[in-house]
Amino acid sequence: MGDLISRKYIIEAITAFQHVISVVVNENSFLEILDAVKELIEGAPSIQSNQRTGMWIDSGEYYANCSECGYQIDIHESRGYYKFCPNCGKKMEQ
Questions:
Q1: Which residue, 82, 81, 64, is CA-closest to 73?
Q2: pLDDT digits (tens, 9 = 90+) for 3-22
Q3: β-pair type (91-92, 72-74)
Q4: β-pairing, 91-92 with 63-66?
Q5: How much is the pTM?
Q6: Residue 68: which of 49, 92, 48, 46 has the closest Cα?
Q7: Sign of the four-CA dihedral 70, 73, 75, 78
């Protein structure tokens, strides 16, 4: 799994580079700017994911509910078809 980085950090860093990007006059300086942006991304602080997993809970009828948000689906669709809740996005445990 890849690193999770802060989108806010990247946007702020690139915004700070806008003055540099505006003075691009040739291909070499453009490539230097791309290298600098790459360095910004590589240096971005990683963040911890707080993503929890959920599970489909059999409601006793013909439906299953997401343990996280309560989204209801057909019980037969919950068995292996939905690996993520289509409502809240939680990864479903098998």
A1: 64
A2: 677 777 777 777 777 666 66
A3: unpaired
A4: unpaired
A5: 0.46
A6: 92
A7: negative
Helix (H) or strand (E) segment spanning residue 35 = helix 27-42
The answer to whether 62 touches 74, Cβ cutoff 8 Å, is yes
User: Which is more confident, 21 or 77?
Assistant: 77
Report which of 38, 44, 42, 71 is spatially closest to residue 56, judged by C-alpha positions: 71
Residues 31/34/38/41 CA torsion (nearest 10 deg): 170
Say whether pLDDT at 25 is over 60. no
Note the residue count of the chain.
Answer: 94
List, in order, residues 6 or more apart from 67 with CB less than 8 Å away.
54, 55, 56, 57
CB-based contact 64:57 (threshold 8 Å): yes
